[in-house]
Automatic annotation (TrEMBL):
PANTHER family cross-referenced by the UniProt entry: F10A16.6 PROTEIN (PTHR33494:SF5), OS02G0793800 PROTEIN (PTHR33494)
Taxonomy of the source species: Eukaryota, Viridiplantae, Streptophyta, Embryophyta, Tracheophyta
Pfam families: PH_TRF2_HOY1
Top-rank lineage group of the source organism: Eukaryota
Name this polypeptide is given: TRF2/HOY1 PH-like domain-containing protein
TRF2/HOY1 PH-like domain sequence ranges: 6-70
Amino acid sequence: QITELLYILWLQRVSRYDGDLVAKCYFAKRKLVWEVLEGGLKSKIEIQWSDITSLRTIYRQNHPDQLEVE
């Protein structure tokens, strides 16, 4: 899943190119992963399912869809 915006508390990352910000859900490994490609280097943010207390999706017309992870 290609992501356009990643916002973590005070950090906001907006995608500039197709594929430089990607969200993945690994069911077998039970984790959510965001991959950020910047300057040729890939960074990952991994969240174990056991650390997630809630998920919320927000859909608004003419705005990016949002997934809130708590």
